[in-house]
Specification:
2 domains, 5-stranded mixed β-sheet
Amino acid sequence: MDIITSKDNIKIKYIRSLNLKKFRDEENAFLVEGIKFVEEAINENADIKLLLVSEETLNKSEVKKLIDSIDESKAVVCTAQVFNSAADTVNAQGVLAVINKNTAFQNDIIDKFNFIIMCDRIQDPGNLGTIIRTADAFGPAALLINKGCVDIFNPKVVRASAGAIFRVPLIHSKDDLEVINIMKDKGFYIVSTVVDSEYYIDNIEKRNKICIVIGNEGQGVSQDIIDNSDISVTIKMTGKAESINASVAAGICIYEIRKKLLK
């Protein structure tokens, strides 16, 4: 297997370009770094387009196993220096993969799932990745991402999801009110989370289908979504803190909603 020694190699330049949203959208692909996350991608049958391996990691048994798990023509070896120029982090362990995006069709997912988590303009990559991970932990659930959210395939989102991005179905919403109306027609009970409400998350009655809306870190759920929800709820807090982190709030709400869904 030939070893790439130039940072200007066309494959290396291609990989490097995927650190930018513009090129991820154009190529319909994204990056995953690290042995464990690449292994999870392969185990979840993700569409691996290319596997880049630093020559200094070739003797590791885990890396050999990754190479053996894919089409040999998709594996590329490079020097450590070249690898570091392509990787987004310093802890990539000498392994990264280019993966073709696989977003779900809206109506298929709405028909299939009884629990949907709608993210409204979540901007912090760590928060969005953690919400994906939480959805995986308390699923089955699908994630609905509106156009105000950070790119779901941002490398920081992918890392924060800890592999969950390969298991949680993702839907992109272009029109929030349209998709809310579609969900209502399918029997979903729409729950918006807010800072102040007379209703608490644990007051919700058991339902067959629920969509919970998690809002922007600073501004919360947008007013038009609140106005079209069936109920707005808050989290009962007994301490002195006025608010909590968006992903923490999402975790509490997702856990509570899971208990409210009828089997």
